[in-house]
Amino acid sequence: MGARRTHRKSRNGCPECKRRRLKCDERYPCTNCVKHAIQCSYIAQDVSTPSATPTTQPDSLHTGRHSPSIPRSYPATPGYASAPPENRSDLLHFLTDSPNEIQTLETDDWASDLELMHHYCTVTCNTLTVREDARHVWRVVLPIEGYSNKYLMHGILALSALHRAHLYPRWRDKYIKATAYHQAAGLKQFRELIASPIDPDNWQPVFCFSSMIMVYVCASPVRIGERWPAPILNMAELFSVVKGMQSIMEPWLHSLKKTQLAPLVNSVHLESDLILSPAMMRQSLLPPGTHEHLSLLHNFVNDYPFPESEENPETPDGQPMPDHRDDYKKALAFFGNSLRQIDLAGPHIEIGMVLMWAYSLSNRFRDDLEAYRPPALVLLSYWCVLLHLVDHSWYINGASRELLGDIEEKLHPAFKDWLTWPKQEVFGHR
């Protein structure tokens, strides 16, 4: 019998882990901080995040096969309690939780910043979109905005350093420290800025920095140095960040198309009055039968036994609470909108066309994701097919396979038939 391995206490962990009462492995940057997109304020850790335990299903749940194309009766849905609030990490919480301390780079000089800026303007900007007019915005317009908004310039350098960490594993530690430094410096100023209402003078650089935050969060595995620790929960956090960005910028989005930033929106939201011709449909990268499978999802949502709502429920602001099923119908409506944008784009799919689905997801839907409830996991598995279309991006980088694999592990056996089509499209025939 081998010697018992001693337990090493974390006595010198980063202040952020101590504040959250988390075990810190005292490496830089801390895995806990990286996982939650928080700038580590000290030397941090490499603690793997344990997978949450799926909601326990009662013994009465049947596990017989049934065809997803002909919905039958479903088992009762247990345990519809609210998910723990600590799982929520939207953009506002992300900014609030970030520490004020900013690390000093060992090579904190102008030459390093010039290297990062050159890489951003010649390489990174071209990886963030496929349309040349949108690339012009990332390459030219954002740096010009950065000249007068220091936090945005820090965001540009942070993104460039993160990209170089992905491209050059030999120098990964150097660039991870650089991205951590610049992101923390940018966030510190950004938090101070949005503490007051956004106004006509600053909403454009705020939008630019918020867009970079989404890329930064998507690229969490690059910062961690491994795959997503808990793909379903990590994706729920990303959805919350997207939703948080929307809540901050919503009052100004109507003005966006009148500015130099318009291509960033026009490349994702194509003209709604365009008619899909047979020739356009032949260029679509959506798998054959995608729209038919969306119809099956509508049947699934219509037939699923969601818990009965309490009488006249209200939201915290006194508005009538939508029915649980309505949350899913809204998600499916936006799913259909994503499909249309992808069809219209032909071979030129923008990642925003896939991520825009997050705008429709209610807090209740994200709670269902975090609790591994069947209806949310089934919808998420179909979304994996769309995510798979942009898996080649360096900051997505195979996330659809990881996510669908986690769904397959967590989904109750009674619903596994619903994964047949997503698995065929993401994994190949299996």
Automatic annotation (TrEMBL):
CDD domains: GAL4. Keywords: DNA-binding, Nucleus, Transcription, Transcription regulation. One of its GO terms (molecular function) is DNA-binding transcription activator activity, RNA polymerase II-specific. Signal peptide: none annotated. This is Zn(2)-C6 fungal-type domain-containing protein. It comes from Penicillium olsonii. Residues 48-82 are annotated as: Disordered. The keyword Transcription applies. Residues 13-42 form the Zn(2)-C6 fungal-type domain. SUPFAM superfamilies: Zn2/Cys6 DNA-binding domain. Residues 48-60 have a biased composition (Polar residues). The keyword Transcription applies. PANTHER family: STEROL UPTAKE CONTROL PROTEIN 2 (PTHR47784).
